[in-house]
Design goal:
114 residues, single chain
């Protein structure tokens, strides 16, 4: 299947949904530096997928997909700290962590398909 727009990429769609979930989960967080960092990492996942796609080269796309995958790992890492600091509930941690694990798997599959 040929993908015509980055908006058609399933990993981008899932990353968009996940980033909105991160924004909502941390909207009341008073640790502004932490909040900014995790929200930036969440947005970075979807933006790197988009940027890589728009560059129109397979090598560039692959490079940006790896960056997106790294940002997904960054979000997951920060979720552990958020849980330990009680910024989020165990249920929120489980939901968000699962989302970013799924996104990482989707990105790995996309990279393999290139």
């Amino acid at each position: 299947m040929k993908i015509g727009r980055f908006e058609d990429i399933q990993a981008w769609q899932k990353a968009k949904t996940a980033s909105l979930s991160v924004y909502k989960a941390f909207e009341g967080c008073k640790d502004f530096k932490f909040k900014d960092q995790i929200q930036s990492a969440a947005i970075s996942v979807m933006n790197n997928i988009a940027e890589g796609f728009e560059r129109k080269g397979v090598k560039e796309l692959e490079r940006f997909l790896y960056i997106a995958k790294g940002s997904a790992g960054e979000v997951r890492s920060m979720l552990y700290v958020a849980l330990d600091l009680k910024y989020i509930s165990p249920d929120s941690f489980k939901v968000l962590s699962s989302l970013y694990i799924e996104i990482s798997k989707m990105l790995a599959g996309f990279i393999r398909s290139l």
